[in-house]
Design brief:
The chain is built from one helix and 29 strands. It starts with about 25 loop residues before the first strand and ends in a 6-residue tail after the last strand. With about 375 residues, it is mostly beta strands. The protein has one domain: YVTN repeat-like/Quinoprotein amine dehydrogenase (Methylamine Dehydrogenase, Chain H, 7 Propeller), CATH 2.130.10. Mean pLDDT is about 85; it is low at about 1-30, about 35-40 and about 230-235. It has one helix spanning about 295-300, and strands spanning about 25, 45-50, 65-70, 75-85, 95-100, 105-110, 115-120, 125-130, 135-140, 140-145, 150-155, 160-165, 170-175, 180-185, 190, 195-200, 210-215, 220-225, 240-245, 250-255, 260-265, 270-280, 300-310, 320, 330, 340, 345-350, 355-360, 365-370.
Length: about 375
C-alpha cells in the first residue's frame, strides 16, 4: 500500500486496491533535488546502508540500521543517520540511491514500509512516504520508486505526481543521456519518464529473474540474472550477466558459477563489475561409506558461503577476479574505482582490482552502497 497526504496526477488510473491516504512527513526548508551544487571534497565518497540491527528481521522496534559516509581512503567521515529499518537480505535493488548532484539520498525501508529522502550533508530528513518500495532512483528532479508492480514518480515534497502499473520489478536504473528508465525483475522493461513502456523483453530463461541492472554509455544495459530457484543456488552454472541492446535484444551472456547480486557498468569502456555468492558444501569429511541418515550427513558436511567479485570487459572477457564482496558494489565514474561490500568490511579497489582502502566498522549483515559524486562528496 502506498500512502500520500496530497492529491496527485496519475498517468494511468491506480488500481482500486491501492489506497492513497495521509502519511507524508515533510520537513521545512525542503529544496529541489536538482538544485545547484555546492563545493565539496575533490574525491568521491560512498554512503553505506548497513542492516546493523538484526531485530529488524522481525519488523519490531527499536530500529538501529544506519547510513554512514566513508571517504576515498575508507575512513569514516560521519554517521549520517540511524534508526532506519531494513529487513531484506538481498542487495540487487537500489535500497539507497544518491541524487544526480549528490545533495540528497533516498532509502527504501522495507521493514516498516517506508521510503525517505535525506540531505547528504546533514542527514536531515526531507520527506517520508509510506509504501513497500523495493528500489528508488533520482531522475530530473524526481524520485522514481519501484513498488511490487508499479512505479511512482515523487517530487521534492514527497507528493506522488505520476504512477503507472509497469509490472513486477526488483531494480530500476536511470539513463540520463536518453531520459529513460530500465526496470528488471521477471523480465526487462524500458520506460520513458512519463512511465510509458517503450520496450519489454524476456531474455531470462529457466523461470528465474533479474536482480540488478546498470547502463552502458551506448544505451545498452548489463543485467544480473539468476535462473535457479534456490537462493543462493547450489549450482551456479545457470546464473550470469546479460548484455542487452537498447531495443531489448540479447547481445552477450556471461555465465558465472555464483549467484550475482549486483552489477555496475563502467561507461568509459563498457566493462562491468558484479558481486555475489554461492552456498558451498564440503563433503571431504565423509569417507568411503555414505551416511545412512540426513542427521549423520549434516554432521559431516561443512557448509559455507563463497563470495565473488568479478570484472569483465564489454566482450565478456574476465579482467579482475576477487574472493571478497558478495553483498553490494558501486562504481565511482570519476576514476573507475569500485566500492565493494563484503561480509564484514567495505573495500575500495582500483579499476584493476588493487585494494586502495578497507573499512571494517560494519556488521556482518546485508549492506548497500551508493557513491556520492565528487563535487558533493563531503
Amino acid at each position: 500500500m502506498i500512502t500520500c497526504s496530497k492529491p496527485f496526477h496519475s498517468i494511468k488510473t491506480a488500481p482500486t486496491y491501492i489506497l492513497l491516504a495521509a502519511s507524508i512527513v515533510v520537513l521545512a526548508g525542503a529544496t529541489g533535488f536538482a538544485s545547484k551544487q555546492v563545493p565539496g571534497s575533490a574525491k568521491a565518497t560512498v554512503l553505506v546502508l548497513d542492516d546493523c540491527d538484526s531485530d529488524n528481521k522481525n519488523s519490531t522496534p527499536p530500529y538501529g540500521d544506519a547510513v554512514s559516509l566513508l571517504d576515498s581512503k575508507g575512513e569514516l567521515v560521519r554517521l549520517v543517520t540511524r534508526g532506519l529499518a531494513i529487513g531484506r537480505n538481498w542487495s540487487g535493488c537500489r535500497a539507497i540511491s544518491v541524487s544526480e548532484d549528490g545533495r540528497f539520498f533516498v532509502v527504501c525501508e522495507d521493514a516498516v514500509n517506508q521510503t525517505s529522502v535525506y540531505e547528504t550533508s546533514t542527514g536531515r530528513k526531507i520527506w517520508s512516504l509510506s509504501g513497500l518500495f523495493r528500489s528508488a532512483v533520482f531522475a530530473k528532479g524526481l524520485v522514481y520508486a519501484l513498488a511490487r508492480d508499479s512505479v511512482y514518480a515523487i517530487d521534492n515534497t514527497g507528493t506522488i505526481v505520476k504512477h503507472s502499473r509497469t509490472g513486477s520489478g526488483i531494480d530500476i536504473a536511470f539513463d540520463s543521456s536518453r531520459n529513460c528508465l530500465w526496470i528488471v525483475g521477471t523480465n526487462v522493461k524500458k520506460c520513458n519518464l512519463d512511465l510509458e513502456i517503450l520496450m519489454k523483453a524476456d531474455p531470462i530463461r529457466g523461470g528465474g529473474g533479474a536482480f540488478s541492472v546498470d547502463i552502458n554509455a551506448d544505451g545498452s544495459i548489463w543485467v544480473a540474472a539468476q535462473y535457479m530457484r534456490s537462493r543462493p543456488p547450489r549450482d551456479g552454472s545457470e546464473n550470469g550477466l546479460l548484455k542487452i541492446s537498447p531495443e531489448g535484444r540479447l547481445l552477450k551472456t556471461i555465465e558465472v558459477e555464483f549467484s550475482p547480486q549486483r552489477v555496475r557498468a563502467d561507461r568509459s569502456d563498457g566493462s562491468v563489475w558484479t558481486t555475489g555468492s554461492i552456498l558451498h558444501r564440503d563433503y571431504s569429511r565423509i569417507g568411503d561409506v555414505w551416511p545412512e541418515t540426513l542427521t549423520e550427513l549434516d554432521a559431516l558436511t561443512n557448509i559455507g558461503i563463497r563470495r565473488y567479485t568479478r570484472k569483465y570487459d564489454s566482450d565478456g572477457n574476465l579482467l579482475v577476479s576477487l574472493t571478497d564482496g558478495g553483498a553490494s558494489i558501486d562504481l565511482d565514474p570519476s576514476d573507475g574505482s569500485v566500492w565493494i561490500a563484503g561480509k564484514s568490511s567495505i573495500s575500495h579497489c582500483s579499476r584493476t582490482g588493487a585494494n586502495l582502502a578497507t573499512y571494517t566498522g560494519v556488521t556482518g549483515n546485508q549492506k548497500w552502497l551508493a557513491v556520492v559524486p565528487c563535487k558533493n562528496a563531503g
